[in-house]
Amino acid sequence: MKDLIEYIAKSLVEHPEDVIVTETRGNRPRIELSVAKDDMGRVIGKGGRVANAIRTLLRVAAERQGKQATLDVTEPS
């Protein structure tokens, strides 16, 4: 699932080298996506549409593995 999010994010942004995806494992995996400040708008999209579409893809991929997962888009550090 981490690889899927990383692939999608790197395809969307202008600075793919700044994409950082971390996954915390557990009963419900939590994936955090961080991109360059300039690319935040591309990943979130107008009204959050792109981020919600990525979350939908993640949810489908997780269900195929019999799990549930969440995606958080975090501020770059």
Question: What this model shows, in words?
Answer:
With 77 residues, this protein is of the alpha+beta class. It has one domain: GMP Synthetase, Chain A, domain 3. The chain is built from 3 helices and 3 strands. Strand 1 and strand 2 form a beta hairpin.
Condensed summary:
This protein is α+β, with helices and mostly antiparallel strands and 77 residues long. The protein has a single domain, classed as GMP Synthetase, Chain A, domain 3.
List keywords for this structure.
77 residues, GMP Synthetase, Chain A, domain 3, three-stranded mixed β-sheet, 3 helices, 19% strand
Report the CATH topology name: GMP Synthetase, Chain A, domain 3
Total beta-strand segments: 3
Computed over alpha carbons, the radius of gyration is 12 Å
Strand order, biggest sheet?
1-2-3
Q: What coarse outline follows from CA principal-axis ratios? A: globular
Approximately how much helix is present in the residues? 40-55%
Total domains, how many?
1
Distance between the termini: 23 Å
**What ranges have pLDDT less than 50 throughout 5 or more consecutive residues?**
none
How can the largest sheet be summarized? Answer: 3 strands, mixed
The level-1 CATH class: Alpha Beta
H/E series, N to C? HEEHHE
CATH superfamily: K homology (KH) domain
Which whole number gives the mean pLDDT?
93
Structural class: alpha+beta
Subunit organisation of the chains: single chain
Q: Do you know the CATH architecture?
A: 2-Layer Sandwich
* Count of alpha/pi helices: 3
Query: Approximately how much beta-strand content do the residues carry?
Result: 15-25%
